[in-house]
Design a protein that fits this description.
Elements: H1 20-31, E1 35-39, E2 43-49, E3 63-67, E4 70-76, H2 78-99, H3 105-118, E5 130-138, E6 141-147, E7 153-155, E8 158-161, H4 165-174, H5 176-179, H6 184-197, E9 210-217, E10 230-236, H7 242-248
Amino acid sequence: MFRNNYDNDAITFSPQGRIFQIEYASEAVKQGSVTVGLCSKTHVVLVALKRNAEDLSSYQKKIISVDTHLGLSLAGLASDARVLSNFMKRQALASKMTYGRPIPVERIVDQIGDRAQSNTQQYSNRPYGVGLLVAGVDETGPHLFEFQPSGMTQEMVACAIGARSQMARTYLERNLDQFADCGREELVTHGLKALKESLNQDRELTVENASVGVVGWSVPPEGSGKKGKLEGFRLYDGEEVGPLLEKALEGSAPKAEGEKEGGAQAESMDIS
């Protein structure tokens, strides 16, 4: 890992124009368990694979509700994600108190991007070792954004981050044309199928290791002239995931998992 002293801080460029500490932070994201996000014309879905560090520990939380119209999923250091999610909650509350309206999704994503990028300009700080998928709806419709440790943010139609996420991305690319017109349940089904693609062959999705978050607009009856109502961010965890898994995985009943998830396991319990 020795880089000729160019990796001692997050503000020094190497002669090749690289900042190695940002690359190290991105490696923490790649070691985290996979999470998938999908966006249609009416809804945004987050699906995440939870991980436990050992058989005696509980599964770590992977999806966090920020506001009634906004939520996120994480891959990487859970402690860094907690700091960023708390910052987002404060900004969302400030928008309601100051302007009397929910904060636009793109604005709050830009704010955490600026916060992360400022860490690459001060010697005493380090990059956040977490990647986020931010899902939300506002006046312009549903949105899905990806946040990277460098501070870069970009809007996505579908995305997967974390360990073994390439196989999930392959599924998303193969079915990309279908997502725009999908309803709530269809989008959840696609998300769980993409998540299943990233698992080892001897592992399965269960009610213990899967989480689903959904937010969007309800579809009004045709010709009514009414605007759809906000369906607030809803987190499905534990037994609530069971019916979603049964439908997505062709009726196979979810089984209790007796051991920790396979794949590249993080050395620290804080990596999720």
